[in-house]
Amino acid sequence: MSRVTVHLLRHGEVFNPNGVLYGRLPEFHLSERGRAMAVMVAEHFAAAAKNGAGAPVYLVASPLTRAQETAAPTAAALGLEIVTDPRIIEAENHFEGLVMNKAELAKPKHWPYFVNPFKPSWGEAYSAQAQRMLEAARDARRRAFEIGGDGAQAVMVSHQLPIWSTRRSAEGKRLWHDPRNRECTLASLTSLTFDGDDVVDVVYSEPAAALLPGAATTPGA
After folding, report:
1. Is the peptide bond before 120 cis (omega within 30 degrees of 0)?
2. What HEC string does the chain produce?
3. What percent of the chain has pLDDT over 90?
4. What is the radius of gyration, based on Cα positions, of the chain?
5. What's the confidence (pLDDT) of residue 1?
6. Residue extents of the structural domains in the chain
7. Crossing angle, helix 160-170 and helix 126-148, to 10 degrees?
8. Is there a contact between 98 and 21 (Cβ–Cβ < 8 Å)?
9. How many whole angstroms from its chain centre is CA 184?
10. What is the C-alpha separation between 79 and 30, in angstroms, rounded?
11. What CA–CA distance (Å, rounded) separates 76 from 95?
12. Is domain 3-211 given the CATH code 1.25.40.10 in the classification?
């Protein structure tokens, strides 16, 4: 079978001075640090290509502004078109648009959404996120193979929770988890190697690690 790597790239830092859980809300742009993160990722791919490791031949992004802006430097560096795929959008969340603090969470209107943290009951099921993301990743794999053949690479710019749910599914782990333990920092790469339609390896890396200290850490972003 043919091997293709699909890099799941989390977007860079967002300008969000009020600490809103922005979810799928439109027009949340990258911060200055976030734009620098996106450039570092593009430079990472370009350097890998220059060193003989190959470069992505297919680029997909969530329709949300922060994902499109993160994809732009890689598109420019590698001469790729950004293909928008709604299947890799952020997870649905009841708390979207709110500032998450103890006072907000204590309001009785929110209590029904806490009944099942394993699903989770406050938003889109982890299993649904993993399913749509893996479907999109397999399509990206097939398209990258059509363009670049065996060993080709694709990039999908998405969001922390869908990427983490996909990784855990690919690794055969339970999907419910402690959000504080996610290994999916801003502008990180979760790289899935496919042999045909099966994921045979998962590698995590942080090409923008130098910009992580001091970056925003809004939950659910």
Report:
1. yes
2. CCEEEEEEEECCCECCCCCECCCCCCCCCECHHHHHHHHHHHHHHHHHHHCCCCCCCEEEECCCHHHHHHHHHHHHHHCCCEEECHHHCCCCECCCCCECCHHHHCCHHHHHHHCCCCCCCCECCHHHHHHHHHHHHHHHHHHHHHHHCCCCEEEEEECHHHHHHHHHHHCCCCCCCCHHHCCCCCCCEEEEEEECCEEEEEEEECCCHHHCCCCCCCCCC
3. 85
4. 17
5. 65
6. 3-211
7. 80
8. yes
9. 8
10. 22
11. 35
12. no
Count of residues making up the chain: 221
pLDDT of residue 163 exceeding 90, the answer is: yes
- 21's tokens: 């859980």
Assigned token pair, 56: 């992505």
Question: Which residue bears the tokens 């009020």?
Answer: 18
Is the pLDDT score of 221 beyond 60? no
